């Protein structure tokens, strides 16, 4: 599997046991121009955020997700933003909310996840070359390695016009942002 620098996939190695503790389960950020042919000095960019959370956040007093949460497209109450992390001084990027619309709820005893996504459209100068991301804490506490720490989902947004005349775009993946594999077992993903 090739992992592109502008898409961060969180692939976890953990023991097969019920994961307890903190609430974040992984995520993906991608973006693309709405029109990939440059016209003028700005481009409209569609930014896609998709995050996975613990099915029940005790510390956030969030509801316990179920199929009705997904059917009603309830908001996942993430009180944070996706911000500019690098080269921000020359950018017109403004922070985006991370409140998601519910898309999935998995009651599997291992995963226990609540997933959501959101789309935002921004108009940015074609000279934009920044790193955007959603950094926070509350990573799995029972991971074999690295549990309980901080995390960041990061993407490089570079609107440079490519040699073929089109505006750059980020790669997209359809894989899950969290993949469970047993410790000390060779696994191909």
Q: Which value, in Å, is the CA radius of gyration?
A: 18 Å
- The number of helical segments is 1
| Protein structure class | mainly beta
Q: Major β-sheet, in short?
A: 5 strands, antiparallel
Q: Element order, helices and strands?
A: EEEHEEEEEEEE
The strand order across the widest sheet is 2-3-8-7-4
Q: Uncertain runs with pLDDT below 50, 5 residues or more?
A: 1-21
Question: Which range does the strand content fall in?
Answer: 35-45%
User: On the 0-100 scale, what is the average pLDDT?
Assistant: 77
Number of domains: 1
Molecular shape:
globular
Helical coverage, percent range = under 10%
Terminal CA distance reads: 7 Å
Describe the protein's architecture and organization.
- Keywords: Signal.
- Residues 1-21 form the signal peptide.
- The longest helix has 5 residues, at 67-71.
- The strands form 3 sheets. Strands 2-3-8-7-4 form a 5-stranded antiparallel beta sheet. It has a 4-stranded antiparallel beta sheet with strand order 6-5-9-10, with no helix packed on it.
- The protein is globular.
- With 189 residues, it is mostly beta strands.
- It has one domain.
- The model is unreliable at 1-21 (pLDDT under 50).
- It has one helix at residues 67-71; strands at 12-13, 24-33, 42-54, 75-76, 81-86, 96-97, 100-106, 113-125, 129-136, 151-158, 180-181.
- The chain is built from 1 helix and 11 strands; from the N terminus they run βββαββββββββ.
């Amino acid at each position: 599997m090739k992992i592109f620098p502008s898409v961060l996939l969180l692939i976890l190695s953990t023991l097969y046991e019920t994961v307890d503790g903190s609430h974040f389960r992984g995520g993906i950020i991608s973006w693309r121009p709405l029109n990939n042919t440059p016209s003028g000095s700005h481009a409209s960019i569609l930014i896609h955020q998709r995050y996975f959370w613990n099915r029940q956040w005790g510390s956030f007093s969030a509801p316990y997700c179920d199929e009705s949460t997904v059917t009603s497209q309830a908001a996942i109450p993430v009180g944070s933003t996706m911000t500019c992390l690098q080269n921000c001084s020359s950018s017109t990027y403004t922070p985006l909310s991370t409140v998601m619309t519910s898309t999935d709820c998995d009651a599997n005893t291992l995963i226990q996840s609540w997933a959501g996504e959101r789309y935002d459209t921004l108009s940015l100068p074609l000279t934009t070359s920044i790193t955007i991301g959603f950094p926070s804490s509350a990573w799995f506490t029972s991971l074999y390695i690295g549990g309980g720490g901080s995390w960041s989902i990061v993407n490089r947004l570079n609107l440079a016009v490519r040699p073929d005349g089109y505006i750059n775009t980020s790669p997209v993946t359809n894989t899950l942002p969290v993949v469970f594999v047993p410790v000390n077992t060779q696994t191909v993903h």
